[in-house]
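Project outcomes to date are best conveyed with an example. Our students and postdoctoral researchers have been running inverse folding experiments weekly, and each run begins with a structure described purely in tokens. The record below, which covers 95 residues, was selected by the lab manager from last quarter's runs and is presented without edits.
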């Protein structure tokens, strides 16, 4: 398994509703990918400009393949990334 957590901070508070609408769409589409084991989107209650993506992919290759899919290239990259600062964390799941 290849877990990735991504903190997104919206640069302009006026863009929070847009990001908040796009991220659940991205989640739903990503979950249809064979390599996607888990994809959750959280919106911070303490800081409304912050979102957390929790993703589990079957492998690093599966995650890399996701980054070539239309959900990434046509929605996430052009519509979300310009509005946010992104802080990705590739993680190790401790059990």
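After processing, the design step wrote out the following sequence:
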């Amino acid at each position: 398994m290849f877990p990735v957590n991504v903190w997104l901070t919206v640069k302009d508070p006026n863009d929070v509703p847009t990001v908040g609408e796009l991220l659940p769409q991205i989640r739903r589409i990503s979950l249809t990918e064979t390599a996607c084991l888990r994809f959750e989107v959280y919106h911070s209650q303490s800081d409304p400009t912050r979102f957390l993506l929790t993703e589990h992919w079957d492998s690093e290759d599966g995650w890399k393949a996701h980054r070539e899919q239309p959900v990434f290239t046509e929605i996430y990259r052009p519509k979300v990334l310009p509005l946010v600062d992104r802080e990705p964390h590739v993680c190790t799941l401790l059990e």
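The two ends are 13 Å apart (CA to CA). The mean pLDDT is 97. The training component of this project remains on track.
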